[in-house]
Design goal:
Rossmann fold; about 35% helix
Length: about 250
């Protein structure tokens, strides 16, 4: 069986011990197969009562800690995790399943594969609900820019999961160069600027100060970047945030 990048992953039986290096995947696993999840990163914050061994961060996981958990498989993501760590785990004999998610459809397809093909538990109810929630055609929305950092200012650009979510909401991404380009606020022509709370923790003070004359809206970064169970409610919550910002 091959992962999302086409790399063969030898899984002679459905994995019973899983370590997740991706917060979105951790939440999906904890909600669907909690008895199989044995390890996660320090950044894995959902569900709030998650009680598993921690293996450090997404960019610097402890390979020794992962090995001690004797996982049947480690789940990772092409953008979230380093290829070096994936390679070292594989060299140590640990199977690693890597996902590649740049669009909403990628997320749905990848989750189907993980739970149906890899874990062999079928399609989770939350995934069915999420696909239904995102199926309707969107109403036309504003031209939106999503800031992800300041000093320097960085933005969600082309070929990103967040950018695809905006499109599926009927919005146009005001930033289309590169994936995460740098640009000063004055260089970004948008009708609305979304200020998430991750990875940079934007606050209400960032809006009027940096974007005079342009509406801004604070929004949970989890709604824009996480896939998994959060997708079942993300459309409604993001639509509400857009409406608050454009009033």
């Amino acid at each position: 069986m091959n992962d999302d990048l086409g790399h063969p992953v030898d899984l002679p039986r459905p994995p019973r011990r899983v370590v997740s290096l991706v917060p979105s995947l951790t939440e999906a696993l904890a909600v669907t197969v909690p008895e199989r999840l044995v390890g996660a990163t320090d950044w894995c914050t959902h569900p709030a009562d998650l009680d598993v061994a921690r293996v450090r961060g997404t960019k610097n996981p402890s390979l020794a800690a992962i090995g001690e958990l004797a996982p049947d498989v480690v789940v990772a993501n092409q953008e979230e995790n380093r290829e070096l760590d994936v390679r070292r785990l594989r060299e140590a004999g640990v199977p690693v399943w890597v996902t590649r998610i740049e669009t909403l459809d990628d997320a749905f397809a990848s989750m189907h594969r993980l739970f149906s093909d890899v874990l062999q538990v079928g399609t989770p109810d939350w995934l069915v609900t999420a696909e239904q929630e995102w199926a309707p055609e969107p109403e036309p929305g504003p031209q939106v820019a999503v800031a992800i950092w300041r000093d320097p200012w960085m933005w969600v650009g082309a070929r990103t999961f967040t950018g695809d979510l905006l499109t599926r909401l009927g919005c146009t991404n005001a930033v289309t160069t590169e994936r995460y380009p740098k640009a000063e606020p004055a260089e970004v022509d948008a009708e609305l600027v979304l200020l998430p709370d991750e990875p940079y923790v934007f606050t209400a003070d960032d809006g009027p100060e940096a974007f005079p004359g342009t509406p801004t809206a604070l929004v949970s970064g989890r709604l824009l970047t996480w896939y998994g169970p959060s997708l079942a409610t993300a459309r409604a919550d993001l639509t509400a945030a857009l409406q608050r910002g454009t009033r």
